[in-house]
Amino acid sequence: MKKSVSMLLAALMLTGALAGCGSSASGTQAEDGADSGVSGAITVISREDGSGTRGAFIELTGVEEKTADGKKVDNTTADAEIANKTDVVLTSVAGNEKAIGYISLGALNDTVKAVKVDGAEATVDNVKAGAYKLSRPFNIATKGEPTGVAKDFISFILSKEGQAVVTDNKYIAVNDAAESFVSDGSSGQIAVGGSSSVSPVMEKLIEAYKSVNPNASIDLQTSDSTSGMTGAMDGTFAIGMASRELKDEEAAQLTSTAIALDGIAVIVNPANTIDELSMDQIKSIYVGDITDWGDLA
């Protein structure tokens, strides 16, 4: 009986020792992943070719580089998951603890977390002050001088009332001293199309404009910046939208106007405890040099 009790006690002590080792291993694993709160391979989310947000992001972070002959090369990793709209990026990052993505600052919501970039928070004030470096213009473009509803609507966008819509939707106005709008009463229907980043604020601008000029009808079509500029050039759109500067070949055929300034927020899942990344780290993630959250010590 004593022998049986002794064997039982020995077994219990061994079990406790093994459990202690297991706890130690778990603690080490948590400590190793303490920098991000997650561990394992980074899921890189990028926008599609033609996206103005992608174009601005890769240029500003250095993911896009020029070759010796001046050709621009996008070095985004082939392992990146491609999202064709801002909402898709948000959903992808919100649903994946290991994901990282980038979106328009104006589209940021509490389903994801924006990280600081080089110590600066992604805020309107920091973009205005130049402290947050990931920023770009929202442009509209027309082929030739706009007339009718297109001309009247553009006047509204750049007016005091239009720029108030811009700031009310978390974007940055380009004209703080704009004058009040007086419609010329133009009637008819036009199409406006392009960037999915510009589209949310454009939708609000259209709603506000139609309240002061009910004679106008504006059809909003959302795609990407390149499609917006192509549509403006071939006449599909009276007004094209781009969330980037126009390319040389586009600028040669179109007249562009900046309607707002926007930041690009680098976002992670709320479970990720990383609060800040450097521009170099962001580039390294997006070109595929850093592939694991554990490498961001």
UniProtKB/TrEMBL annotation:
InterPro entries reported for this sequence: PBP_domain, Phosphate_ABC_transporter
Pfam families referenced in this protein's UniProt entry, alphabetically: PBP_like_2
Protein localization: Cell membrane
Domain PBP positions: 36-161, 184-295
The protein's name in its UniProt record: Substrate-binding domain-containing protein
Membrane-topology descriptor: Lipid-anchor
Function: Part of the ABC transporter complex PstSACB involved in phosphate import.
Signal peptide boundaries: 1-19
Lineage: superkingdom: Bacteria
Record flagged with keyword Signal: yes
Source organism (scientific name): Agathobaculum hominis
